[in-house]
Amino acid sequence: MSVAFRRESDEEHLEPRFELPIPAGPNFVTAAGPALIAARVAALEADVAAATDESRDVLSRELRYWNTRAATVEVVALPTDDEVGIGSRVTFRLDGRERHIAIVGHDEADADERIAFAAPLARALMGTGPGDLADFQGRTDAIEVIAVENS
Questions:
Q1: Which end of the chain is less enclosed by CB atoms within 10 A, N or C?
Q2: 133, 125 Cβ separation under 8 angstroms
Q3: CATH of span 89-149
């Protein structure tokens, strides 16, 4: 019989489920990071315990990721008063618009106000201070640092 006419199961077409990728490099976090990660682990453990067979695999995979992140956490001390680093809240001007962000670890980041230290914007800001200009996205002096809060 031709391969074109054989019945294949739906399972043959499913994508394999790989482990969630761990970001490269150290797992730096702010002082609040370990508690955030521990809360995520606790929530996932409860979800796994209550899960059905279908969702248990997905939740277990996510739990393994967060357990690994909890085991490798490295709390970073705040930088000096006027230098941007992990844990800093920065006010800056980019493209004529004033913005406020916090630079945090990968697992503490969100899309709006907290960005991971490895993000391009965070890398451009790291090491700068109030009044400094920084290059960004191939443009010279694209970012003007207005204020830095490290507390």
A1: N
A2: no
A3: 3.10.50.30
Strand order across the beta sheet in which 89-94 lies: 114-116, 97-104, 89-94, 139-149, 133-136
> pLDDT at position 101, please?
96
Query: Would you state the structure tokens that stand for residue 45, as one six-digit string?
Result: 């453990």
The letter for the amino acid at 3 is V
**20-65 pLDDT, tens digit each:** 898 888 999 999 999 999 999 999 999 999 998 778 988 999 999 9
Per-domain residue ranges for the chain? 26-75, 89-149
31: left (phi over 0), alpha (psi -120 to 50) or beta: alpha
Contact 88, 130 (CB under 8 A): no
| Average predicted confidence (pLDDT) for the chain | 89
